[in-house]
Amino acid sequence: MNNQPSKSLILATVLILFAVLSRIIPHYPNFTALGAVALFGASQLKDKWQALLVPIVALYLSDLFINNIVYADFYESFVWKISPFVYVAFAMILGIGWWLRDRVNTGNVITASLTASIVFFLLTNAASWQVSPLYTKDFTGFVAAIVAGIPFFWSTVAGDLFYCGVIFGAYAWFRQQYPALLA
C-alpha cells in the first residue's frame, strides 16, 4: 500500500498555501489569488471534494488570520465568524470552475475569470446593501452600494486575471515540461 500523498492532494495543499499567502501579505484591496485558486481547483483537481475544500479552507484560514491578527484591535476575543455572502460567492465561483473542466483554454479561462469577478462583485455588494445601515433599502441604496464597490471591482478583476494567468499558465508550463510529475 502506498502511503505517499497523491499529486492532487499536494497540488491542493500548495494552492491553499498560495491563496492564503496572497491574502495575508500586504496587497492592494481585493487583489488576491483566491478567485483564481477557486477556478483552478474546481477545473483541475480530480476529486470534487478537494476542489470544494481548497478555496473554502484557504478563505477560512485567511479570514481567521485577518480577523484575529490584522484586525485584532477591533475585537474583544478570538473571532470565528465569516461573511456567509462571500462564501456563497465562492461556491458560485466553484460552479464556474466546474464548467471550466475539460474546457481549459486561454479564452475560457479569461471568460471564467471575468465572470467570477462579476459574480463576486454583484453578490457581495448586494449583501452589503442589505446588511449595512449606510444604504437605504430601496433602488437608490442598491445603486449606492454598487457604486461604492466599483473601485474594489477593478482590483478584483485585475487580481483574478493576473492570478489565473499565473496559476493556469504555470500549471500548463509544468505539464509541458514535466508531464510525469503532474500525471
CATH class label: Mainly Alpha
**How many beta strands in the DSSP annotation?**
0
Tell me the count of domains: 1
Approximately how much beta-strand content do the residues carry?
Answer: under 5%
Number of helices: 7
The assigned CATH architecture is Orthogonal Bundle
Report on the architecture of this protein.
This protein is mostly helical. The chain has a single domain (7-182), classed as Arp2/3 complex 21 kDa subunit ARPC3 (Orthogonal Bundle). The protein is 75% helix and 0% strand. It has seven helices and no strands. The chain has helices at residues 7-24, 34-44, 48-70, 84-100, 106-131, 139-177, 179-182. Helix 2 crosses helix 6 (139-177). The protein is globular. The protein starts with 6 loop residues before the first helix and ends with a helix. The relative contact order is 0.15. The mean pLDDT is 89.
